[in-house]
Write a sequence for this structure.
């Protein structure tokens, strides 16, 4: 027995002979899989993961990749200075080859990411996928949601049109409300770089780094903890990946078509000190609260929503999956109605001055 | 050896052609000038006794500034007003040689004039007011904030549309093929 084990170990220690593969497409495929360790993607997952509602997170990631590519291309032509920003956006739209389409792709990808991430969150909440041991997966997802919001906000400021100028003024006003915590978002933080340049820096480096780190954590936890499903894992992950890439390409085609048919416009260069526009639609729910509470609304509304989302796994600690706490569902439903209702109200609400209200 | 010498000579010739006129320098009395303000430019190390054109190149527009003539030592000094059409922003002041090449250039920032700005005029008073009525409004216009969108002249060429269409069609075809393959494989 000992000799047998010894012989096996000796065989393992010997260098493996070079694979003698005959040239051909199949063997080349095997070689690529071996070299890139793609066989590791053959692990099994639950079949339910191939249903579209379970792919919302993956489709959000497709949107994020689109945002990164289009963002990198546009940033080659963007001038992050207060006097040059608006002109450079007009330059991208009017002079850069396919620039208007690229910008449209960026805009529509941001829109679809903001929609799909909310749908993903609602579905995960409904499925109670935040229950033990997936609390950190949920928190990483909520932090991703918050980061995407921050990216959308900084992106809207970079346009440097009237809407961007007012968003910037709101950022400063909000930062001043929270005291020392908000100092980096005020012009007084440094005289060496304008706030617009620092927000540009956040949009293209700081926030994407945070985003990718959180995506990495989210994916890592999903890989090892799996999704919340009660059926046996029988489907190879590569099959899921193929479907996801297929849907992702179709989504990209839709985004490309929207960008070509309905490209986003740009307002006139921003004038400081006045509020005559409404924000980018994902922020209309905050705008709605600001119409009631004044500038404090921009602090309180996100605090309530994201605060609630962060504590969800702590509020629902029941191990009995059949017993869902009704009060939690009611509270979440109320917040969802307020969120969607706030956006709808924001569309039709009268334009108001919030800073100094 | 003979081939190397020929190559070097050829390269030297190309270099000489590329720099047919000397690369000079220009300096501005001030790096920041207010809209419609005065610009004082001095140039040196330029072609001697030659007429050069000065241009103000912005992100979106180029404005001719003046024609200057260098002296026997290749220098000049000029003083002129900025075009009133030049909006706030970053510009490059460029010296253009007679052959069209850039002989010298430097950066300029056009800043707002120290004039009273009617920033307190809200939308209610100026519902259709514009910050800038078009992409090159008169700089002396008093800016008004507006929620309206600009009309940006976007000119997508036929070849650009072809590329966009190809990308979209390729995405649809690729996506459909992958989904078809995934549906056929056992799950």
């Amino acid at each position: 027995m000992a000799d047998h084990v010894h012989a096996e170990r000796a065989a393992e220690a010997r260098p493996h002979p070079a694979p003698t593969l005959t040239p051909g497409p199949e063997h080349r495929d095997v070689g690529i899989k071996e070299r890139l360790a793609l066989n590791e993607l053959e692990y099994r997952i639950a079949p339910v993961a191939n249903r579209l509602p379970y792919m919302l997170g993956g489709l959000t990631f497709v949107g994020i990749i689109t945002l990164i590519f289009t963002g990198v291309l546009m940033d080659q032509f963007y001038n992050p200075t207060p006097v040059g920003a608006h002109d450079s956006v007009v330059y991208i739209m009017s002079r850069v080859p396919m620039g208007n389409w690229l910008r449209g792709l960026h805009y529509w990808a941001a829109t679809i990411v903001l929609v799909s991430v909310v749908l993903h969150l609602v579905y995960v909440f409904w499925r109670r996928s935040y229950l033990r041991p997936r609390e950190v997966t949920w928190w990483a997802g909520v932090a991703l949601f918050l980061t995407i919001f921050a990216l959308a906000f900084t992106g809207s400021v970079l346009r440097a049109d009237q809407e961007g100028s007012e968003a910037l003024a709101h950022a400063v006003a909000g930062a001043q409300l929270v005291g020392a915590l908000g100092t980096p978002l005020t012009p007084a933080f440094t005289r060496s770089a304008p706030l617009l340049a620092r927000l540009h820096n956040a949009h293209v480096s700081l926030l994407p780094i945070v985003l990718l780190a959180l995506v990495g954590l989210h994916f890592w936890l999903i890989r090892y903890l799996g999704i919340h499903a009660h059926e046996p894992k029988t489907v190879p992950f590569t099959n899921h990946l193929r479907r996801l890439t297929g849907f992702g390409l179709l989504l990209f085609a839709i985004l490309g078509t929207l960008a070509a048919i309905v490209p986003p416009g740009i307002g006139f260069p921003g004038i400081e000190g006045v509020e005559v526009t409404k924000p980018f639609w994902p922020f209309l729910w905050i705008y709605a609260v600001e119409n009631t509470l004044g500038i404090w609304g921009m602090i309180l509304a996100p605090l309530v929503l994201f605060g609630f989302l962060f504590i969800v796994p702590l509020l629902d600690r029941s191990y009995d999956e059949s017993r869902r706490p009704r009060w939690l569902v009611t509270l979440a439903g109320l917040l969802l109605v307020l969120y969607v209702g706030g956006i709808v109200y924001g569309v039709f609400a009268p334009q108001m001055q919030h800073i100094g209200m | 050896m003979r081939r190397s010498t020929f190559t070097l000579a050829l390269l030297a010739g190309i270099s000489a052609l590329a720099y047919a006129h000397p690369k000079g320098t220009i300096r501005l009395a001030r790096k920041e000038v207010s809209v419609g303000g005065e610009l004082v430019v001095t140039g040196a190390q330029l072609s001697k006794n030659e007429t050069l054109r000065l241009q103000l190149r912005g992100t979106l527009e180029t404005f001719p500034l003046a024609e200057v003539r260098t002296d026997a030592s290749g220098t000049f000094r000029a003083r002129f007003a900025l075009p009133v059409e030049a909006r706030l922003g970053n510009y490059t002041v460029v010296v253009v040689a007679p052959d069209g090449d850039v002989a010298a250039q430097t950066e300029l920032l056009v800043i707002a004039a120290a004039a009273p700005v009617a920033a307190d005029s809200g939308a209610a008073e100026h519902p259709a007011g514009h910050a800038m009525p078009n992409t090159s409004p008169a700089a002396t216009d008093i800016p008004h904030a507006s929620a309206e969108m600009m009309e940006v002249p976007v000119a997508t060429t036929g070849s650009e549309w072809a590329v966009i269409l190809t990308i979209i069609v390729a995405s649809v075809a690729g996506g459909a093929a992958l989904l078809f393959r995934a549906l056929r494989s056992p799950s």
About this structure: Chain B is about 25% helix and 30% strand. Helices of chain B lie at 2-18, 158-184. The longest strand of chain B covers residues 102-111.
